[in-house]
Design goal:
The complex is a heterodimer of chains A (347) and B (269).
Chain A (H helix, E strand, L loop, with lengths): L2 E10 L2 E11 L4 E5 L6 H9 L6 E6 L2 E2 L10 E4 L11 H11 L4 H14 L15 H14 L4 E5 L7 H18 L2 E6 L2 H7 L2 E6 L2 E6 L1 H6 L4 H6 L3 E4 L2 E3 L4 E4 L7 E11 L2 E8 L4 E7 H7 L6 E6 L3 E2 L27 E2 L3
Parallel strand pairs in A: 3-8, 3-9, 6-7, 7-8
Antiparallel strand pairs in A: 1-2, 1-4, 4-5, 9-10, 11-12, 11-19, 12-18, 13-17, 14-15, 14-17, 15-16
Chain B lengths: L1 H35 L5 H7 L2 H34 L5 H13 L2 H12 L6 H6 L8 H11 L2 H14 L2 H8 L4 H30 L2 H7 L9 H10 L3 H30 L1
Helix pairs in contact in B: 1-13, 2-13, 3-7, 3-8, 3-10, 3-12, 5-7, 5-11, 7-11, 8-10, 9-10, 10-13, 12-13
Classes of the chains: A alpha+beta (347), B mainly alpha (269).
């Protein structure tokens, strides 16, 4: 069941949460809505579910306009960031809730609930109450509850946001596998670009109530439409109007025609990856991402003078995406006196 | 040294609290029980089981049977309105609900008297239609409802605020309509708040004197609730009857409290 949103807008008082948003989610895909807080991604998800009414625009599920359909008739599975577990019900009753509402027979409910509990690896915990579960278990229960009614689409609102890093990683892989098996059209909201790239096939980057760009992780990373997407989907150095990924910074001990002198300020070892911070002659601070092997070969020390050169940069003029900024220029083209360039990292 | 001081502080605080409760609450109750059974069980039982006494008991229970369910339904609905549907009129509704706390019951009785009396706003019209509010049960029911309106609302509002709306939203995405969501999700989540409100409402209705006394006309065997019966016995120097009915009132209130605790314990087990 594909999902289409056309020209959605929503205002909360003075705040424009959604501003003419259109997205297209193909049938059976796994799509991430990615953006900083306040970008409208959750509002968009809630509007698709029917938990929020749009001021303008419409929502189509499987080519049917559901804009006026109440939430309980839209047959969407929704998973909340804070689980929204029914606290007075056991795990079994939570998962079976939607089926009970649909007046399924007891035997059928029992069969389906146990099938789902096996799927989410909670089969031994059917009699527990949500308060007796860990965060990860609660979220899996919430997922089983949403899946029990065989929804047309599955919507997840920052599903791993309240979990610790380790559990998050496990659940990410687990969600991906689940989607492989079930192939129900899934949209999930996240502010974590790594999570979005790890889990989703398609990403929609949102900012200030608008869609900035959508595409695969690769497309967003390699051909960002604008400055916002460039800085949001990965780390960047800014050299005047040029944006460079830290892993596109080449570091050499000898000068060459396109390189620039820089002083090593700090070397941060992050396991396989090493982060080297430099100051350029004009005071601009940038950093490069090297592998451990590269660092060992260079034998860098702090306060050492080296020569840096970007392999490729991107330039955006206003909001218009550059046709192809690849290798277009080097930091030498920076306007003189442009000292306000600085290290900019992803949010 | 510090812990010794802390312990001493804690104990003196406890003693102070217990002393306060003993002098102000426990002592009067004990005296009543003692006085009631001073000359054996017979006199108080005789007084309470007299026709007027039994009628007063029945009437008090009738007040509870009418006012408590009405105020429970109204209270839960009102709490839902206040918490779940934010609009500008909420502050006004909120203050109006608190009025019975702020106004003396006597004043409430008087205002009902003015409204439904022979020269009141509604009195003459209702009288013509053959409905008598004053000096009869309907007026007393009105007074009982009036004084006990706030309890269920006040006990339910904070619980509703605390549980939030996510569980209700989850239920609606799973196909539950508004009524199913209320019955299966909201009500179970707020039930102890509501139950506590019901206990307080019951106690208030049982004990109400001022407002009911004005609108009832205090006709023995007709419009006399237990508290009115107590007062009449007391002013007629029938102390056995007064104390006996008082003990009965206290026992009724204790029973409601106990009933709630038993239910709650069963639930937790």
């Amino acid at each position: 069941m594909g999902i289409t949103v056309e020209g959605a807008s929503k205002r909360f008082g003075d705040f424009q949460a959604l501003n003419d948003v259109s997205i297209d989610v193909p049938n059976g895909s796994l799509t991430a809505l990615l953006g900083p807080s306040g970008s409208g991604k959750s509002t968009l998800l809630r509007a698709i579910a029917g938990l929020e009414n749009l001021d303008g625009g419409r929502v189509l599920i499987d080519d049917e306009d559901v804009s006026t359909k109440p939430v309980q008739k839209r047959e969407v599975g929704f998973v909340f960031q804070h689980y929204a577990a029914f606290k007075h019900m056991t795990v079994y009753e939570n998962v079976g809730f939607g089926l009970k509402i649909r007046k399924w027979e007891k035997d059928k409910i029992s069969e389906r609930v146990h099938e789902l509990l096996r799927l989410v690896q909670l089969d031994g915990l059917a009699g527990r109450y949500p308060s007796q579960l860990s965060g990860g278990q609660r979220q899996r229960m919430a997922l089983a509850r949403a899946l029990a009614v065989q929804p047309q689409v599955l919507l997840l609102d920052e599903p791993f946001g309240a979990l610790d890093a380790k559990v998050r990683k496990d659940l990410r892989a687990w969600l991906r596998n689940l989607h492989e098996e079930m192939h129900v059209t899934t949209i999930f909201v996240t502010h974590d670009q790594e999570e979005a790239m790890d889990v989703a096939e398609q990403l929609v980057v949102m900012n200030e109530g608008r869609v900035e760009q959508s595409g695969t992780a690769d497309e967003l990373y390699e051909q960002p439409a604008n400055e916002f997407v460039m800085t949001f989907v990965g780390e960047v150095n800014r050299l005047g109007e040029h944006f460079v990924r830290p892993h596109d910074m080449e570091v050499a001990l000898d000068r060459d025609e396109n390189s620039e002198e820089a002083m090593v300020q700090r070397i941060v070892q992050l396991g396989f990856e090493v982060r080297i911070e430099f100051a350029l002659a004009d005071g601009t601070e940038i950093w490069a991402q090297l592998t451990r092997a590269e660092l060992q070969k260079l034998e860098l020390r702090e306060k050492q003078i080296v020569y840096v050169r970007p392999r490729q940069t991107k330039v955006f003029s206003g909001d218009v995406p550059s046709p192809d900024g690849r290798g277009a220029s080097t930091p030498h083209d920076r306007k003189p006196g442009d000292g306000n360039a600085e290290v900019s990292a992803a949010v | 040294m510090r812990t010794a001081n802390g312990r001493r502080g804690r104990w003196s605080l406890r003693a102070l609290g217990l002393g306060y409760l003993t002098v102000l609450l426990l002592a009067p109750l004990v005296v009543i029980f003692f006085k009631t059974f001073e000359h054996g069980l017979a006199p108080p039982i005789e007084a309470v089981t007299s026709p007027d006494g039994l009628h007063a008991l029945k009437l008090s229970l009738l007040m509870v049977a009418i006012a408590v369910p009405l105020n429970t339904i109204f209270g839960v609905g009102c709490a839902l309105l206040l918490v779940r549907h934010r609009w500008k009129g909420n502050a006004v509704i909120d203050s109006i609900i608190n009025l019975p706390f702020a106004i003396s019951p006597i004043v409430i009785g008087l205002s009902l008297f003015l409204l439904y009396g022979t020269k009141g706003w509604f009195g003459p019209a209702l009288s013509e239609a053959g409905i008598e509010i004053l000096f009869s049960v309907p007026g007393m029911v009105l007074a009982s409802i009036f004084v006990s309106v706030p309890f269920v609302v006040r006990e339910t509002v904070p619980v509703l605020q605390e549980i939030g709306t996510e569980q209700e939203q989850a239920a609606s995405t799973l196909g539950a309509n508004a009524w199913q969501t209320f019955r299966r999700i909201t009500l179970p989540a707020i039930r102890w708040g509501v139950a506590y409100g019901i206990v307080l409402t019951t106690a208030r209705v049982l004990g109400e004197f001022g407002a009911v006394s004005i609108v009832s006309g205090q006709i023995s065997g007709e419009t006399e609730t237990l508290p009115l019966f107590v007062e009449k016995q007391f002013t007629n120097f029938n102390t056995a009857g007064a104390y006996g009915a008082s003990v009965l009132l206290a026992l009724l209130a204790l029973t409601t409290l106990l009933a709630m605790n038993v239910l709650k314990r069963k639930e937790d087990a």
